[in-house]
């Protein structure tokens, strides 16, 4: 992952600096998501059957953990919950497609 080159939020004094920070953060998030989806590829490779891809208990646990972590950091848990719902559903869809691709 490349080094973060923008100013931290509390150090910003202009909107240009804020936008540079947001853009740099977005690039970091995509880097992290690339790694997360790599884990989905690994899961698809490892799981023995397609019906083991969707795990509702694990999904609920992952979302609850993200919400709790967000709230402990003072950011809105409901927003993080919504983002993680979409992230986990997208991850499941990706993993299913990868599972199918590795078995054809």
From TrEMBL:
Its EC number is 5.4.99.5. It comes from Aurantiacibacter marinus. It comes from the Bacteria. PROSITE patterns: CHORISMATE_MUT_2. One of its GO terms (biological process) is chorismate metabolic process. InterPro entries: Chorismate_II_sf, Chorismate_mutase-related, CM_dom_sf, CM_II_prokaryot, Isochorismate_pyruvate-lyase. It holds the Pfam family CM_2. Keywords: Isomerase. GO terms for molecular function: carbon-oxygen lyase activity; chorismate mutase activity. Substrate binds at residues 19, 36, 47, 95. It is an enzyme of class 5 (isomerase). SUPFAM superfamilies: Chorismate mutase II. Residues 9-99 form the Chorismate mutase domain. This is chorismate mutase.
């Amino acid at each position: 992952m490349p080094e973060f080159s923008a100013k931290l939020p509390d150090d910003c004094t202009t909107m240009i600096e804020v936008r540079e920070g947001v853009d740099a953060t977005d690039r970091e998030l995509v880097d992290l998501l690339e790694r997360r989806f790599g884990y989905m590829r690994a899961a698809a490779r490892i799981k023995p059957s397609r019906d083991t891809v969707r795990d509702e208990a694990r999904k609920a646990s992952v979302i609850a953990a993200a919400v709790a972590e967000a709230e402990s950091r003072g950011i809105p848990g409901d927003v993080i919950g919504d983002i993680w719902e979409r992230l986990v559903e997208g991850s499941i869809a990706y993993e299913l497609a990868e599972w199918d691709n590795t078995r054809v």
